[in-house]
Amino acid sequence: MSSLDAKLKSGVELSLSESQTPISGADLLIQSLVRLGVTTIFAYPGGCSIPLHQAMTRYRDRLRVVLPRHEQGGGFAAHGYARATGKTGVCMATSGPGATNLVTIIADAKLDSIPILAISGQVGTDSIGSDAFQETPMVEVCRTIAKHHYLVTNINDITRVVKEALYVASTGRPGPVLIDIPKNIQMQTCIPDFDPPINLPGYEPIPTITSNGLQNPASEFYDKLFSVLNRSKCPLIYAGGGVVSAEASAELLRFAEKTKIPVATTMMGLSIFPRDHALSLGMIGMHGTAYANYAAYNCDLLIALGVRFDDRVTGLTSGFAPNATIVHVDIDPSEINKVKQADLFIVDDVKNVLIELNRKLDSSGASSEKSNNSDLSKSDLSKWKNQIDEWKLQLPLKYSGDVSYILPQFAIETLWKMTKDLDVIITSGVGQHQMWVTQYYRFCKSRTWISSCGLGTMGFGLPAAIGAKVAMPNKLVIDIDGDGSFQMNIQEMATCFCEDIPVKVMLMNNQHLGMVVQWEDMFNNANRANTYLGRITDPENFGKGDGKFAVNFYPDYVKIAEGYGWSALRVSEKSELQNAIKKMIESPKPFLLDVVIPYKEYVLPMIPAGKTVNEIVIS
C-alpha cells in the first residue's frame, strides 16, 4: 500500500503536494463531505454506490456510517439527525429502486423545510437514458420536490457541487438537495481542488426585503408594526417551524413576555414556546386546542412568524382570523400572500426580526422620551386575557379518567410527567397518536419534538428516533408510535440493535388505522373500509357492535422486539403503566413498550377539514 493510499485509508487530509495526486471521484466526494464538517451519514449500498461505500471505509475515524435496513429508514434517520441538531442530515442510496426509496424523504423534507443532502448512485453516463438496469432519472423525478438538485457528469465538479449542496440545504429556508452521481464519475480520477468557488447565480439565502411597496421597507415595517400593536386589543402570535430553523425560541419568548401577547404554534413549531407558560395556547388547527382556535378567529391582529398558513391550521381560509390585521414574517418570499393576504409583511430571517423588535422595545423602555412607535405601555390587553382564560377554563383538553384500561391520552400524559425533568427528545409516527402527543406532551424546549408534519408520512417515528439518538447520544429518545405507522419501517429495529442505538418506542396499539377509523365513524357512517390491521375471522359481522378493543392483538410486538434483540413489555391496565414506563426509561437497550388501547377513541377537539372553528367538535 502506498503512503498516499494509507493516508486516504486513515482519513488524514492531504498536504498541498499530495493533493496534486489524482484521486477517485468517490474519494473526492467523501473527503469533501468530511472537510465540510459532515460526521455522520446514513447509507445503504448497491451496485452504483459501491465506490462511494469503499471510499467511506477510508474515513472511519471521522465519519460514522450507519447502515439502515431500508433506504427510507436511512433517509428519515437523516431527518431526525437534522431536526435534533439543526445541521444538514446526509443519506445515501444506490440507483434505481434505492434512489426512488429516497423520494418520500425528499418530499417530506421539502414540506417541513428540513436540511437534507440525499446522495444517489446512478448508472454510468454512457448508459443514462437507455433504460439500463436500475436506472431512474432522479433529477427529473425530484425536480419539483427538492430545493436544488445536481446530476454530476464531470468529476471536476464534485467538490463544488458538494460545497454548494450543503450550503443550499442549510441556508435561507432549509430544504433537501439531491446529488445524483454516475458510477463512472465515481471511478474516474482527477487532481482535487477542495476550495472551489460557489457558483449559484440568483440564489439569495435571505432575499432583498420587500414589504407592500414601502420605500424604506425595513424601518417602515417596524414603524407600522408598532402602530398596529398600539391599536390592537386582541393580538395573537401564530408561530411555526421557521422559528425552529432560525433558532429563535428565546427571542420569541422575550417578545411575547414583553408585549403580553398569547402564542399559538403550528405542529412544526410545537416545542418553540414553553407549553406550561401562561401565554401559551398550545397548538392551533384541526386538532389544536379549542382556545387557540377561538383566539385566532377573534383576534384583531395576527402576527405570523415562520408559518405557511397550512390548510390543517386555517381550515376554511376565509374563516381564519377573518377580522384581523395580518402581519407575516417569513424568509421565503413565495410564502407571502400565497394562502392568506398579508396587510404587512417582511421577508427576513425571523430571528433577525425578533431581535430588532426586542431591541426597539428595550430602547423604548429605557428612554425617558419613549418613542410612540414602540411604546406599548398604554396597551390594555386585560379583556383579551380574561377572554382567553375563560376559554381555557370552559374548553380544556380532557379525557375520561374513570376507566381501568389505558387511554392513549393518559399514556402520553403519564410519559410526559415521568420525563419532563429529563433531557428527552420525542419523535412520532403519523396518525391519532401523533395528535395526542401534540395535545398531551407539554414541550418546553426547542428541537425536542420531531415528526412528519407537512407530508404526514407513516413510518417516520422509529428511524427519526435513530437519527436523533445518533446525533444526541446522551439524550433519552422516545418514539411514540402507532401500530400501523410503526410497521412501515419496523425493520429499523435491526439497525438499533446492530448499531447499538438504544432508542425507546412507546407503541399505541389498537390494531387499527385509528385516524381513518375516526373519519369513518364521523363522516362515513362507521363503515369499515380496510382500516383493521388484524385478521378478520367473521366477515359478516365485522365492524358491527360497540366494542372498544380489537378482537385479538396480532402480530405480537413483544416477540418481534425480542427477535430483534430488544427488551419489550406489553401493558393493558392503567395500574401497570407507570412501572412499565419506568422500565422502558431505565433500560440500557432498545426497548419497546406495547400499550394496548381502545380503537374507538377519538382525537378531539376537531375542526373538520375545510370548516371553521364555529363547527368545531369538542366531544
Number of strands: 20
Helix content: 25-40%
Total helices: the number is 24
Question: From the helix content, strand content and strand pairing, which structural class follows?
Answer: alpha/beta
Morphology: globular
Q: What's the number of domains?
A: 3
Q: Residue ranges: pLDDT <50 for 5 or more in a row?
A: 366-371
Average predicted confidence as pLDDT: 93
Distance between the termini: 72 Å
CATH class placement of the largest domain: Alpha Beta
- Superfamily at the CATH H level of the largest domain? Thiamin diphosphate (ThDP)-binding fold, Pyr/PP domains
Strand content: 5-15%
- CATH fold annotation of the largest domain: Rossmann fold
Gyration radius, in Å: 26 Å
Q: Which architecture name of the largest domain does CATH use?
A: 3-Layer(aba) Sandwich
Could you describe the largest sheet, including whether it forms a barrel?
A: 6 strands, parallel
Using brief descriptors, characterize the structure shown.
Rossmann fold, globular, 24 helices, 20 strands, alpha/beta, 6-stranded parallel β-sheet, 15% strand, 619 residues
Report on the architecture of this protein.
The N and C termini lie far apart (72 Å). It contains 24 helices and 20 strands. By secondary structure, it is α/β, with parallel strands linked by helices. The protein has three domains: 188 residues, Thiamin diphosphate (ThDP)-binding fold, Pyr/PP domains (Rossmann fold), CATH 3.40.50.970; 178 residues, Rossmann fold; 190 residues, Rossmann fold (3-Layer(aba) Sandwich).
